[in-house]
Amino acid sequence: MTLNTAFDSPVHDAQQCFRRLLKAMSEPGVIVSLQLLRHGWQPLGVATTSVLLTLVDSDTPIWLSPSQANDIVRSNLRFHTGTRIADTPDEAVFAIADENLNPLLPDRLAHGSVIAPEHSVTLVLQVNSLSGGRMLRLTGAGIAEERMIAPQLPECLIEQLSDRLHAGSLGIDLLLT
Predict the structure, then answer these.
(1) Which residues pair with 112 in a beta bridge?
(2) Is the pTM here over 0.85, yes or no?
(3) Which residues of 64-87 are buried (b: 16+ CB within 10 A; e: fewer)?
């Protein structure tokens, strides 16, 4: 088992990271910096590792896509957060994936409903860049009029998000790192 370091100052750093994540989640499309770590738990980047250290605990099972799951990640998650690694995506509160996203994954994740929006999964998606991709227009809660973003997202996810928008589903929460 290989354990890597976490936050230098666990309480202070997690609070700072939480405040930044709260801003990003309450104002969709706003980019925040999560650079409190020296390095992530490879293949997880610094931002993804920071999200997990801040939001995951023993009550929040996570699912790791095959490209993100290795002994280093599993060992560090268990040691630093006490989380349970879910066997299937539909069991998870958080799902971790990268640009090699399986096109079927979004349908396998727990989706919120009008009655229980809190039952949706948070998909933490590691992308190559938060710019240079297809231009997307965001509207809705937390956005005064509209916000334009261009992250490099997998085409299957863009299609899923567009389809959900028209179907009226509440869908999933999405954090891009």
Answers:
(1) 171
(2) yes
(3) bbeebeeebbeebbeebbebbebe
